[in-house]
Design goal:
By secondary structure, this protein is α+β, with helices and mostly antiparallel strands. It is 51% helix and 17% strand. The termini are far apart. Bound molecules: FE2/S2 (inorganic) cluster.
C-alpha cells in the first residue's frame, strides 16, 4: 500500500514535473546522460553565497529519472553546495520513498549526478584559469 503511494507521487512528478525547463542566465549548467538508455538531462543552477537559490532541469527521460529530478530539485533548493555534495543514493531513496532496485539506479541518480556535477564545477570553476596560468 505504502509503495503505491510513493509510486503515485513519482508518476505525478513525472506527469507534472516541478522546476522543468531552462533557467535563464544560470551560474552553472551541466548536461549528463544515461549511457545505458540514452536519456538526457541538463541541470541549471543559480547560486548565491554558496546556496542553491534556483535550480531547474530539462531533457527527456523515463518516469523515474524525470520524477526524481522533479523531487530532487524541490528538495535541493535552498541547500548549500556542501550539502549537495554530501547527497548520495540514500538521499534519493529517502526522497522518493522507494528503493528503485539495481536495474534503475542510474535512472534514479541521473539528476543527482548532474546536480552534484554542477556544485563541483561551480566550486572549482577557477581551476581552468589557474591551469592556464601555469
Ligand atoms: Fe533512461 Fe531511466 S530508462 S533514465
Amino acid at each position: 500500500m505504502a509503495l503505491d503511494i510513493y509510486a503515485e507521487e513519482m508518476i505525478s512528478h513525472y506527469e507534472h514535473p516541478h522546476n522543468k525547463g531552462k533557467l535563464e542566465k544560470p551560474d552553472i549548467m551541466l548536461h549528463e546522460n544515461n549511457p545505458v538508455c540514452g536519456d538526457e538531462m541538463t541541470v541549471y543552477c543559480r547560486i548565491e553565497n554558496g546556496i542553491l537559490k534556483e535550480v531547474s532541469f530539462d531533457g527527456e527521460g523515463c518516469a523515474i529519472s524525470v520524477g526524481t529530478a522533479s523531487m530532487l530539485t524541490d528538495f535541493a533548493k535552498g541547500k548549500s553546495l556542501e550539502e549537495i555534495e554530501r547527497m548520495d543514493f540514500n538521499t534519493i531513496k529517502e526522497l522518493i520513498g522507494i528503493d528503485p532496485g539495481p536495474a534503475r539506479v542510474k535512472c534514479a541518480t541521473l539528476a543527482l549526478k548532474t546536480l552534484k556535477g554542477c556544485a563541483f564545477l561551480y566550486q572549482h570553476k577557477d581551476i581552468d584559469i589557474a591551469t592556464k596560468e601555469l
